[in-house]
Write a structure and sequence with these properties.
It contains eight helices and nine strands. The strands form three sheets. The chain has a four-stranded parallel sheet with strand order 3-2-1-7, with helices on one face. The chain has a three-stranded antiparallel sheet with strand order 4-5-6, with no helix packed on it. With 279 residues, it is an alpha/beta fold. It has helices at 12-23, 64-67, 84-97, 119-122, 194-203, 231-235, 238-246, 249-260; strands at 4-8, 27-31, 104-105, 109-115, 125-131, 134-140, 142-145, 186-190, 209-213. The model has no long low-confidence stretch (mean pLDDT 93). 25% of the residues lie in helices and 17% in strands. The chain starts with a strand and ends in a 19-residue tail after the last helix.
Length: 279
């Protein structure tokens, strides 16, 4: 029977896993590499190996009602969409409110996780951690890995023949922090995801020229939707889900495209996605 649980990471998922495990009476230890809760939302001036990294201007893309913990609503005085520093403060409030901090070992890196020698009969795991240069091995009945998927960048340099001869600067967006580095420069941003669009807009205010390259196009959406409501409060509803199930595909696709083209016609800018009806 599981009693002693290890949780790796004290970000959004790690905190929720920690609270849930404590509520059912488990003995829980959470290991966090940094000195604070927050994970991805814990902004740093420089990217560090093994830790997620965001740029200074990051805001949430989901409104506070849709992205809060159900048992701990985001305070009313917070805006619908929050700067990363404010959302980090919310996570700290959550951790303090449910007395989670005392179960977290900060500045502790998990070096290795492997099956215990008698795993076949016990199901236990060995975890090797390091704190202040000292390594320690501990046995746990279960392990929850809550490190997220933003830790390691995908930088496919093999797709750019001759990049080794390029005399300018190239980097992954996890190393981008502020636009001042690109003042007066010509920039090519590859990829039209959330980060690509954000960085293109931000750097365009100080750079000489910004080019944004997209292979498949994308629907450009505003955080603010009909009647000033957050987009996800309007779009992600039971009613919208009901319509998508009962309407013929041709009709639902037409409605979808019409909705996405409300602010501007994407075809005028060559932005219509190859897979047109996937959000």
């Amino acid at each position: 029977m599981v009693q002693n649980v290890a949780i790796i990471g004290a970000g959004i998922s790690g905190l929720a896993a920690l609270k849930g495990s404590l509520e059912v009476g488990l003995q829980v230890t959470c290991f966090e590499k940094s000195d604070s809760v927050g994970g991805l939302w814990n902004f740093m001036d420089h990217a560090e190996d093994g830790r997620a990294s965001i740029y200074s201007s990051v805001f949430t893309n989901a409104c506070k009602e849709m992205m809060c913990y159900p048992d701990f609503p985001i305070p009313d005085e917070y805006p619908n969409f929050m700067h990363n520093s404010l959302f980090l403060e919310y996570l700290r409030l959550y951790a303090r409110n449910f007395d989670l901090i005392r179960h977290i070992k900060f500045k502790t890196t998990v070096l290795h996780v492997e099956k215990h020698k008698d795993f076949s009969s016990t199901g236990q795991w060995d975890i090797i951690t390091e704190n202040n240069g000292e390594q320690r091995s501990t046995v746990f009945d279960a392990v929850l890995i809550c490190t997220g998927h933003h830790v390691y960048p995908n930088l496919p340099l093999q797709s750019f023949p001759g990049i080794e001869k390029f005399k300018g600067l190239y980097l992954h967006n996890r190393d981008y922090k502020r636009p001042s580095l690109f003042f007066g420069k010509k920039i090519l941003i590859v990829g039209l995801g959330n980060s690509g669009a954000d960085i293109a807009v931000e750097t365009s205010r100080t750079a000489e020229k910004v080019y944004l390259s997209t292979r498949s196009g994308a629907w450009i959406m505003s955080r603010v939707w009909d009647n000033g409501y957050p987009w996800d409060m309007v779009y992600l509803t039971r009613y919208q889900s009901f319509l998508s199930k009962i309407l013929p595909r041709t009709v639902s696709d037409w409605l979808y495209e019409k909705m996405m083209n409300k602010r501007f016609d994407h075809s005028n800018y060559g932005l219509v996605p190859l897979n047109k009806y996937v959000l």
